[in-house]
From TrEMBL:
It catalyses: a quaternary ammonium(out) + ATP + H2O = a quaternary ammonium(in) + ADP + phosphate + H(+); ATP + H2O + polyamine-[polyamine-binding protein]Side 1 = ADP + phosphate + polyamineSide 2 + [polyamine-binding protein]Side 1. The lineage of its organism: Bacteria, Bacillati, Bacillota, Bacilli, Bacillales. Transmembrane segments: none annotated. Belongs to the ABC transporter superfamily. Spermidine/putrescine importer (TC 3.A.1.11.1) family. The keyword Translocase applies. GO terms for molecular function: ABC-type polyamine transporter activity; ABC-type quaternary ammonium compound transporting activity; ATP binding; ATP hydrolysis activity. This is Spermidine/putrescine import ATP-binding protein PotA. InterPro entries: AAA+_ATPase (IPR003593), ABC_SmlMolc_Importer (IPR050093), ABC_transporter-like_ATP-bd (IPR003439), ABC_transporter-like_CS (IPR017871), Mo/tungstate-bd_C_term_dom (IPR008995), P-loop_NTPase (IPR027417), PotA-like (IPR005893), Transp-assoc_OB_typ2 (IPR013611). It comes from Bacillus zhangzhouensis.
Length: 363
């Protein structure tokens, strides 16, 4: 088992810069996710770690070893590719045995390691089946067993669950996490699914436009995003470009106006008064909604419901203002009856739920 360390990795494809100076460290035994939208360079980075692509610039370490120039089979990495290709003409056993046969291991050892790997993914009984006789989830488990069979020191997974339907995907996520814990193997999971990354990872690296935007625990990246990109990519968010108003120690939001003609004012908990303009964030589930005005609250706004969507466990409410809108997520349990579009509503939130984002506001 080893950690992974990337130093100043860049990847150019002709004119295009797919990765731009990416540095990161994945600790030994850690479950690390690389999260980002399609085309942001996730697979490119994973392929560089696995040795399927040599970076234009930069160094890859696995453990203490500089592996940048080594071919994949000398890196002790197990990889599950985005389009999980099992060999269709080989049995489950032979699929999992493939890497061991390439390494010219003895027959008895191959058998033992294949059965061990299949037992990790709970498919010992399926050794003799052909891939087409398995469900999508089972095929994916075989692909994971195949990657683990060579006893790699790191496991690299490129969107391994993206072809599965929602329910199966959830089950497989739990299984994946259990397998990783049992084996204790350093793992990088590439995904574009923020919920998957949040629920599985020890830490997440958010990749946007070929650059690392933030690295942190699920809680850190959700509650204290570095910038607009991270805030918008992970979950839903209300963003406010606000101007500091020294007289009232408040932040005025010029792009939000209430029906009384006043701009929305934000009172955050603690604030740095270095600049005039700030980018502030408020998560929709941190906002309380009420049919009565709660003027004693430090942050309160009145608006009219512009949209109501019922998502089962929660409601997504769009509170329309004279200019602009604020998104609110409320628990299903809070509403015996669904509120209706056109109703006047009062919203409020706590000062500590107003979060400062680091990036400068460009106007
Ligand atoms: P992701 O996995 O995040 O969806 P990729 O790493 O596959 O993104 O791709 C990042 C960018 O690099 C994309 O714009 C893609 O078109 C480009 N790219 C990836 N591989 C190649 C390649 N072999 N040749 C040229 N461009 C590539
Ligand atoms: Mg990809």
């Amino acid at each position: 088992m080893s950690g992974i360390h990337l130093e100043h990795i860049s990847q150019h494809f002709g004119e295009q810069i797919a990765l731009d100076d990416v540095s990161l460290t994945v600790h030994e035994g850690e479950f690390f996710s690389l999260l980002g939208p399609s085309g942001c360079g996730k697979s490119t980075l994973l392929n560089i770690i696995g040795g399927f692509l040599e970076p234009t610039k930069g160094v890859v370490y696995i453990g203490d070893q500089d592996v940048t120039a080594l071919p994949p089979y000398q890196r002790k990495t197990g990889m599950v590719f985005q389009s999980y290709a099992l060999f269709p003409h080989l049995t489950v056993f032979d699929n999992v045995a493939y890497g061991l046969k390439v390494q010219k291991k003895k027959k008895a050892e191959i058998k033992q390691k294949v059965m061990e790997s299949l037992s990790l993914v709970q498919l010992e009984e399926y050794a003799k089946r052909m891939p087409h006789q398995l469900s999508g989830g089972q095929q994916q488990r075989v692909a994971i067993a195949r990657a683990l069979a060579i006893q790699p020191s790191v496991l690299l997974l490129d969107e391994p669950l993206s072809n599965l339907d929602a329910k199966l995907r959830k089950n497989m996520q739990t299984e994946l996490r259990n397998i990783q814990r049992n084996v204790g193997i350093t793992t990088i999971l590439v995904t574009h699914d923020q919920e998957e990354a949040l629920s599985l990872s020890d830490r997440i690296g958010i990749l946007g436009e070929g650059r690392i935007q933030q690295i942190g625990t699920p809680l850190e990246v959700y509650r204290q995003p570095n910038n607009r990109f991270v805030a918008e990519f992970i979950g839903q968010v209300n963003l406010f470009e606000a101007v500091y108003d020294e007289a009232g120690s408040t932040f005025t939001v010029p792009h939000l106006t209430q029906s009384n003609g006043q701009h929305v004012q934000l009172k955050p908990a603690g604030h740095k008064r270095k600049r005039e303009k700030y980018l502030l964030m408020l998560r929709p589930e941190r906002i309380s909604i009420s049919s009565v005005k709660e003027e004693f609250q430090p942050n309160h706004v009145t608006g009219v419901l512009a949209d109501v969507s019922y998502i089962g466990h929660s409601l997504r409410l769009v509170v329309g203002l004279d200019k602009g809108e604020i998104i609110v997520h409320a628990s299903d349990a809070a509403f015996p009856q669904l509120p209706e579009v056109g109703e006047t509503v009062h919203i409020n939130w706590q000062p500590e739920d107003v979060v400062f984002l680091d990036s400068k506001v460009h106007t």
